[in-house]
Amino acid sequence: MQCCCSLIYEVPQLISERHHIDRQSMLYSMERSLSGLAQNHVLKTLKPNISGSKSLFEKIFGLSDGNARAQSMPCFHSTGSFLLQSGCQYHYLVKLLKMLIHRSRRCNYLRLLEKHCALPILDSMAARSSSTVLESEEMGMETHDTQSESTRTYCSKSQVVSFIWAVCRSIIPPDLLGSPSNWRILRSNISKFLGLRKFEKFSVRQCIYKLKTSSFPFLSSKHPSCECDVKSFAGQNENIQKLLRGIKDSLTNAKHKLFVNWIFWFFSCLVVPLIQANFYVTESEHGKHDLYYYRKSAWMKLTDRAINCLKDGIYNPLNEAAVRNILSKRSFGFSKLRLRPKNTGVRMLANLKAPSRLPRKGFSSRGKCVGTQRNKQSHDRTGKFVNFKSVNSILRDTHAVLKGLQLKEPEKLGSSVFDYNDVYRRLCPFLMSLRNVSTTLPGLFIVVSDVSKAFDSVIQDKLISVMKEVIVEDEYVLQQSCQVVCMERSLWEHKNVLLTDRTLDTDLTSFKPCVPFRSLHSILVNQGCSRLVKKEDICFNLKEHLKQNVVQFDKNFYLQIKGIPQGSVLSSLLCSLYYGHMERNLIIPLLERVSKDITEDLLTQQISSSASTMQNLRDVAVIAPLRYLLLRFIDDFLFISMSKALAAAFFSMLKGGIPDYNCYMNHEKFCSNFDIGHQLGHPSNRVCVSEKGIPYICWSGLLINSCTLEVQADYSRYLINHLRSALTVRWQDRPGHNLKRKVCDFLRPKCHTIFFDSNINSAAVVRLNIYQAFLLCAMKFHCYVSELSYICKLRAQFYLKIIMRSLRYMYRLIRRRMHSSYGGHNFRPILNLQDQEVKWLGLHAYIQVLKMKQSRHKVLLSLLNSKYCAHKLTGNTSSDLNYAIERSNSSSLWRIKY
């Protein structure tokens, strides 16, 4: 008969070292517990007795029902059996778990929280200011210091680690924490866990990193197995010794299973719940992927001020009856709202991708259904809830119709651009036309402006009337296709819906994949499915989406009464159509009137001048139609003109605002490169001057030379935080292979035709753009390797291969992007670049960056220098290459913290 205590070594291997700790539950948790742990936590629900400790043992180590029943068998320890040794690990561990439950009930969590995560005193400052966090943003006013400070009341990660470790020391018996030598390691692993960025994963292997099983007393030889004492059989024959070695190996493996299960439970069921109960964990606008830990009390104060503004701003409270009345008439539900801290307050974010549900009570037995194709609500299996589809899933057909109309009637979107491709297609011909007239560009006058609260200031009724002019057909035909992408370990499927029209090319060859950079590893499948979408249904869904947008925030419901719901698949298109309508009706007519007056004045001056020639008249006739370029990235305007009067008229109109559309500019992001009357060029953080005195205008991630219109990438957004905050490091599953792929990923964002086309940029600026892309890539490479090194150190030769591969990849990527940019336009991209120049620039960039960190990269730097010195361009560089590597031309990048 088997002793029940021996079951300790027969627990199943529920957890492997490849398992990950679930971190999602600790993000954005609004639930607050005054007792340190949630009331439904296992340590709160179990009693500190033998029964409770055995139940906890089963939860941690995964005993099956059969194992549990076996525990009813008599224990040999009570009979004086020869199997009894100095103690029983099973009973010893049950005793420790009993102590754990008892201590968790007596722990003063709040005192430890106040001690290790003390809050700064902001109440007195908050009392001096009656304004709210969101009011200052809504009115476009300067944010009060109190509001800025309130968003910075998060605890440092070291404070949070100190609190977690203090709780662990308080409630966990020392024998479960291991020997003192293990404490430092375990605390370090907790620190690594809490220091993860938003999208990073933490495996069990990282949890147990450097921890030793022998250092945990509950797994040591002090409490051996009940089965047998291996040492007592020493000196027996070889077969017995072989059998004993097998038993010893089995015991070692069994102990490791216990150890892994315990550490997994420690992180997933103790550390994570402690964070979830005591902190609100979120990313911020300025912190990239870094996570910030706010004490629940501090976050509640920030939330209360935001709610007050919600009630007075763009949202109205809704009672439950009103919510049910709205949702009963449609198939999509509501979205959940959360706050994201900013430097000057908070931003409201709504999740329109997730389905929603409400308790069944209060709904009629049959869900109302209005319209021909509006699905009824569904009920869950228990019948206790009514389920609603996500907002975005229902709006998918409307989005497909609007995207198709965008291709068919682009003029309805005005000057809208949605990416670098659109900017390039508009900017390049404009520049070429200017340079065809003269070898030197005439005086250029530039205005850049950003609409204040663009989405929230949209007049809903006005937008609905605009959409009625866009959606004119009674019905539209949609065709469904599917993109299947080959990922590393699986196939990823994405369904696409396209508008079918006889005047549009809807062949799959014209379809733009949703994952363009993996297009070589994907196929498009025409599923042959088509369906009709009626105008009535489109207009109904649009009106419901705009006028009946229900959001939930902290269990309360609100109705949006102003603006466009952000986070919707339609947000960008609706905003672009709205401001496109404003352009067609107000801005373009004004520019045409002013342009006409200017042209007439110029012609009058030329005719009256005896020294003028007919050639001058022809020049004026050529230049007149191309006197300005207007681009708008959603709500961000860029205006370029050769006429100061025209630019001044545009400036004045936007500065005064356009009341008919409730459109007013953000004066902090309003700038020009010329003087207007007695005013100097409008001061703004969007104007910058290089160390050489070259003026640039910052617009939508681009730096535009205001004298030559040459384009560079704007890297200023990396100056706020350490560069590692922009990374997502993957320690698991072949980290070297992941690094190889990541380095190529680092090069893609700033590798676009607009930076390399000689129609736009000079040879020197083209090479400077390549060099700056390599500088940022090298900085990210260093940060990634540094983050990886604590658990994985690779050879310098391997790093060298990755770097050289990235240099070759960059040249291929540039050529591919240049080729794909030519789509039958009346101009062709020009690339004057050699692959050896790209390799030389890359080597130089890596060496300069890694020289700043040479204690870590000493061997790698030696290898890179050898490659650099052996390169044929070293010592024989052109003036364009020398211009590219000049440090003053990349001064902003060298200010990045890496």
Automatic annotation (TrEMBL):
Pfam families: Telomerase_RBD, TERT_C
Keywords tagged on the record: Chromosome, Magnesium, Membrane, Metal-binding, Nucleotidyltransferase, Nucleus, RNA-directed DNA polymerase, Telomere, Transferase, Transmembrane, Transmembrane helix
GO molecular function terms attached to this record: metal ion binding; telomerase activity; telomerase RNA binding; telomeric DNA binding
Domain Reverse transcriptase: residue ranges: 321-704
Enzyme Commission number(s) of this protein: 2.7.7.49
Biological process (GO), any one: telomere maintenance via telomerase
Localization in the cell: Nucleus; Chromosome, Telomere
Gene3D superfamilies linked to this entry: 1.10.132.70, 1.10.357.90, 3.30.70.2630
Cellular component aspect of the GO annotation: chromosome, telomeric region; telomerase catalytic core complex
Catalytic activity: DNA(n) + a 2'-deoxyribonucleoside 5'-triphosphate = DNA(n+1) + diphosphate
Transmembrane segments: 258-281
Function: Telomerase is a ribonucleoprotein enzyme essential for the replication of chromosome termini in most eukaryotes. It elongates telomeres. It is a reverse transcriptase that adds simple sequence repeats to chromosome ends by copying a template sequence within the RNA component of the enzyme.
Stated name of the protein: Telomerase reverse transcriptase
Record lineage: Eukaryota, Viridiplantae, Streptophyta, Embryophyta, Tracheophyta
